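Students often ask why we bother encoding 3D structure as a string. The short answer is that it lets us treat folding as translation between two languages. Here is a chain of 199 residues written in the first language.
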Amino acid sequence: TYFIIGLCILIFLLQINTQSYKTGQLFYSYGLIPSVLMGHDALPLDVYAIPSYLTIISSMFMHGGFMHLAGNMLYMWIFADNIEDNLGPTKFLIFYLLAGVGAAMTQVLMDTHSQIPMVGASGAIGGVLGAYLINYPNARVLVLIPFGFFSQLIKIRALYVLGLWFILQFISSGGGVAYAAHIGGFVSGMILILFFNKK
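And here it is in the second language, the structure alphabet:
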């Protein structure tokens, strides 16, 4: 868990210090572009960096901005360590990558002709949330609830917190967010954890 968080932060710091990040070219080189992956389009030679199938992995460790990174790493920090405790570090890494692949392919299949690069750990982390829902539905999660000018920290069962998160992915749209990847990752995590669990 901490290795993945550290790697995502390191890659983001490397990203923001490149000219191609400022121009957006970096996202076309290493982000997952459905139309390129499915063979409908090809990248220009000056943008091409790695084979399109490898962008399924590279895109999982890139982020579009600081808030994108911070939000994902917060979810990772809260939920992933418990799943890693269940599986052990090696199996957890395999689980995480497979959930990320499931998330990515769900987004790709929603629009195979899309030319918009997809980046972020959200889909793989969605898989972690799906696994957490299966393994720890009754765990209490500390949630910050805003009440106008005031906020209150309360503990809510994971079943309700993650269930609400999942529902919100269906009713949310726009803003350049790959909601289909979130849903695909969540469902992938719920299914995969049944095979990965030790008991």
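Translate back mentally: The mean pLDDT is 90. Keep this in mind for the problem set.
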